[in-house]
Amino acid sequence: SAVISQKPSRDICQRGTSLTIQCQVDSQVTMMFWYRQQPGQSLTLIATANQGSEATYESGFVIDKFPISRPNLTFSTLTVSNMSPEDSSIYLCSVSPLAGGSYYNEQFFGPGTRLTVL
Amino acid sequence: AQTVTQSQPEMSVQEAETVTLSCTYDTSESDYYLFWYKQPPSRQMILVIRQEAYKQQNATENRFSVNFQKAAKSFSLKISDSQLGDAAMYFCALAGNTPLVFGKGTRLSVIA
Asked: Which one of A42, A48, A102 makes the best mutation probe of the B interface by having the most chain B beta carbons within 10 Å?
């Protein structure tokens, strides 16, 4: 398994501002993912972060709102832009150390960032 | 599209007893993986157990086991000898030609 850290662990932000969340992994991984977990809800995939290329966004999520960087195989950032109270959620970074093949496999998760937007 | 359904929003079990959490899924893929994740109040997602679809044998991990019924697209989790530390949200998840897709979760309470 991989050890994943996220910064910050929590934050309270004002409407209209932006927050960048960092995800650091202790080993090189091929696939990194960002999920959103709204209060009391399940996890929803925001995007897949690929090293050296643009992130792949899921339906309902756009790059202008959630820009992602993946500068190397151990690090990624997710920015939540122009925040509104509806963005209040837990944001989780996830990695899949198992590379290769055309199928996705198990994923390991960071501790999450709890964001509250006032 | 791949979907995962957990029909039990909440379950409870007496300490030392056995409980089964239900999960059904839908996918058009022939190769896929199924998982159960646990999320305690700390919000850390913890992988509990993993099942490869091509394996007929049900996966087991200590007190945790699954009943995988591929034809019925059913994947239930059995927790034996329940402990207070098992109290958490449990998510069933599916990975195939897409990253993990999660069910809505089942909140498990353990009664001392």
From this structure: A42
